[in-house]
Here is the input.
Amino acid sequence: MKQWIISIICVCAFSGLTDILIPDEKNKKAFKTVSTLALLCVFLYPLKSVDNSALFNAFSFDKQEASSDFQSDSDSVVISAFESGIKQALSEQLSPYAIKPEDIQVECRKTQEEIRIKRVTVYIEEDKEEEMKEIITSVIVNYVSSETEIEIIGR
Here is the structure.
């Protein structure tokens, strides 16, 4: 950043100095054009190091890429709905144990074939943690696969 600002100052100083030193109007116009282009290049130089792939992708009209963007958006909506459904079912089953829906977090992931429940986290009162852990885990096991992580955390 510091070097960029120094470059701008040098180009401006050089342009101003040569504008004063060049007496003839015909040459001044040509030099002003060149110095303006040099100043523009110095101003735009930092953009050279920026990753512009996102910009180029935004203007790409590749149908497969567009469909994958749409698919990932629709996937996130489906995953969110699936997580909400699992959370609702678990909260209904855990309500007798004073577990509220806001005490349950469900995290899912989508593979090519299916949506899997990655983790279920339940927050309970710290003083009830030991006695409730097994009961809550047994209820959750009925809804999830053996690969699912189950966390019972005391507040």
Notes: The CA atoms of residues 121 and 151 lie 5 Å apart. The chain has two domains: 2-50, 75-154. The two ends are 47 Å apart (CA to CA). Strands lie at 104-110, 115-124, 149-154.
